[in-house]
Amino acid sequence: MRLPLIALTALAACEAAPVAEGAARYDGIETRLLDGDLVNFRVKMANVADEEEVADYAACAAAQYALIRGYGFARNVRTIVNEEGGIWTGDAVYTISPALPRGLRTIDAEVTVADCAARDIPTV
Questions:
Q1: Has this prediction a pTM greater than 0.90?
Q2: Three-state SS for 3?
Q3: Which of 99, 93, 118, 87 is nearest to 34 (CA)?
């Protein structure tokens, strides 16, 4: 009967790290490539002060994704934030590109990922 013990050990190793009471809790990122350079990021959080925290989590995911794909920039197309029962979700769409895209809502992926790390916001 070693199998149940191994299974329990594996499950225990997957538990989330404890979060300080009242601190934002980052509950996951789902990434979907929509078409070419268009990417959808769905994020989930709890203990959020406002919509901006959710949008920042999505931006961090987009910036890291751009770097993983070998691109240096991203541009926010749209971000929709919802809250239900204390659980916040964000549904964001970004374009990723090797050069600075046109528009006002652009991010430099390297700078953004560094800022996210400094603010303890997880990325992809």
A1: no
A2: helix
A3: 93
- Provide the number of structural domains found in the chain: 1
Within-domain flag for 15: no
| CA dist., res. 93 & res. 63, Å (int) | 12
Collapsing DSSP states into helix, strand and coil, what is residue 123? coil
- Separation between Cα atoms, residue 90 and residue 56, nearest integer Å: 10
Does 13 map to a domain? Answer: no
Q: Give the domain CATH number at 69.
A: 3.30.1360
User: How far apart are alpha carbons 30 and 41 in whole angstroms?
Assistant: 6
Among 63, 68, 37, 49, residue whose Cα is nearest residue 115 = 63
**pLDDT tens readout for residues 21-41:** 678 999 999 999 999 899 999
Q: Which two tokens stand for residue 26?
A: 């980052």
* Residue 5 DSSP one-character state: H
